Amino acid sequence: MSTVETTRRRPRAGELAPYAILAIMIVALALVPVVTQYTVRTANVYDIFQNFASYGLVALALGVTIIAGEFDLSVSSMYLLGGMVAVLTGAGSPLVGIAAALGTAILVGLVQGGLIARFRLNSMPVTLGGYLVVLGITYILGHNKSVMYDNFTVGLRLDKPVLQVFSIRSLASLGIFVVAALVLRYLRVGRDIRAIGGDRRAARVAGVSVDRLLVSVFIVSALGAALAGALLSYSLATASPTNIGFDVLTFSATAALIGGVSLSGGKGSAVGIAAGVLSLSVLQEILAILRSPDYVSSLITGGLLVVVTIVWAPDLSQWFRTTRVAASAEERT
Amino acid sequence: MARVGIERRPLRLADIALTVWIGILSVVTVYGALTTTGFLTVSNMKAILTAASFVGIIAVGLTVIVLSGNLFSLALGQTAAISAMVFLYSLRWGLAVGILLTLLLGLAIGTVQGFAVGAWGANPIIVTIGAAGLIEGMAVWLSHGESIVPPSDETSWEHLANPLFGLPVPVYVFIVVTIILAVVMRRTRFGRQIYLLGENRVAARAAALPITLLTVGAFGIASLYTAGAGVLIGATSANASLLLTGSYTYDAIAAALVGGNAVTGGRGSIARTAAGAIFIATISDMLLLRGYSTGGQILVRGIIVVVVVVLTNLRERNR
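^ inputs. structure came back:
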C-alpha cells in the first residue's frame, strides 16, 4: 500500500461519498418547506454550526485515532470531564479553565496512549477502563451533581452570532478543523499517522517512531474531546457528570465513519470528518424543525452507524460474491 | 507457537506482577470485609449474591463473545432494559409466554448483530454501539417514554423475585446457567470451535470452521443470557424503563476482564467470569457500605479494569 501520493489521481467514488451525503442532507433541508409551512432561516444555519461546535471536535478526535488504527472509547467521558474541570477552575478567568481542561486531557491521553504503546495493548479495553476512570473522576469533582458556572457572560459571548451564522465557538471549531486538515494532508506527521493505521509493521520498518506517535494521537484525542466539552459547558453555564451513555460517542463515531474514515485504519481526512459532522448536524436540525421526538434522532443515528459500519466491513464484498456464486451453483444443479 | 509437553518454565515478571496484584486485592478485600460495618452479615452476603447474579448472568453470556475473539458488546445494558420492559408488558399473556417472548427477542437482537460481525466482518464494538442506540430509540418509541408495570391481575411473576429456600431465585438461575454454559464451552464441538476461532482466526478460516455461524452463536448466547437477566431484573424491580440500563454493560465487561479472560480471545473460561462477577459485586457492595459515592465506585472499577487488562496481556504474551 502506498502512503505517499506523488502523482495526482482522480478521486474514487468512495472518497466522494461524504460530500454526496452532505449534499443530500442540504437538499433535504431545502425541501423542508415543501413538507411543512416552515421557511428555513439563517437561524437554522446558525444552529447547524452550533451543533458542529458542540460535537465536531470530538468526531475529529475520534477520527484521528481511527485513522491511526486505534479507537478511543474514553472521548465521551473526557468530554464531560473537560467541561467539569473548565467550570470548576475557570471561575475567575475562562481561559484558565480551558487551560486546566486541556492539561487534564494531556494527562489522560499520556497515560492511555503510554499504556497502549508501551505494552502493545488493544485500545478498546484500555480506553473502556479509561472511560470509567475519567467518568468516576468527573463524578467526584462534581460531587455527583451538576455544577453551575456563574460567569454567564462568557457563554453569551461565545455564542453571540458572528456574520449571522457563526459564533466564536463554532469559528474556533472550524479553525481547528482547518489546521487539522492542513496537518493531516501536508505534514509528515499526517502521513505517518495514516501509515501506522494502514500497516503498522511496515511503518515501523520505514522508521516511523510508532510509539511516540501513538501517545500523541491519544493526547490529541483527549484534547479534542476536552476542548469541545469545556466550550459547551461555558455555553450552557453548567457542567454535569450524569450525561452518561454513548450519545456523544455515537454521534462522533457516526460522523467520522460517514466522513470516510475507515475502521480498518489508514484512511480518512479532516475535511471528510467535517462533512460527516455537518451532515449529521443538518439532519439534527431537520428533525428539530419537524419537531420529531428525541427517539427518532436516536433511531436514525444508531441505524446510520450500523449501516456505515457494515458498508465499511472488510468481508462484505466477498460475502456477496460467495453467496452469488453459491446461488448460481444451486441454480445449476 | 506449539509447546510440546508440559515443562516448568522460569518465573517471569508478568507472573510475579499478577501474583502481587492478586495478593494486594485479597488483602484489601479481607481488610475491607473485617473493617466495614455490616459487611459480614448474612443479609449482606445475600445482597452481594443477588447483585452478582444479575451481572453474572450477563457476564457469562458475554464471555462467549470475548472467547470468540470479538472483544465485547456495548449493547448489553440496553438489551437487559428492553428485555425487562418486554417481559413486564407481555405478562398479560401469562408468565410462560412472557419469559419465552423475552428470550426470543433477546436471541433475535443478538443474532442480527452477530450476523453483521460474523458474515461481513463488521467491527463488533461499533455495531453494538449502533445497536444500543437503536434499542434505546425503539424502547422509547414503543413505550411512549413511560415505564412499564406488570398487569394488576397477574402475580405469578412475583415468584421470580421472592426468595426460595432462603436465597433469591436469580441466584439459582445464575448458578444453573453458568454450569450449563461452562459445560457447553468445554464439552461440545461448538465450544471448542469458539475457542479456536478466538485463538487463531486465520487457522479457523483455514480449517473451514463455520465462522458466521459461530459468531452468530456467540452474540446470540450473550444476548439470550442478557434477556434472561432482563426477565429477572424486571421481576425484581416490578417497573421497567430504560433507567434499568444502569451500569450493566460495564459491570459485565469488567467481570469478564477481571476474571482474567484474554481480551483478544481464545483463552479464559466461563468459571473465571463467574468469579469476576462475584468479585465486582463484592467490591461494589463494600464501597457502598463504606459510603463511597457513585464516582468513587466507577473510578475503582475503571482502575481495576485497566490494571487487569495490562496484566493479563503481559501474561498472555509470555506464554
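Chain A touches chain B through 58 residues (CB under 8 Å). The domain at 16-332 of chain A is CATH 1.10.3470 (ABC transporter involved in vitamin B12 uptake, BtuC).
thumbs up if we can close this ticket
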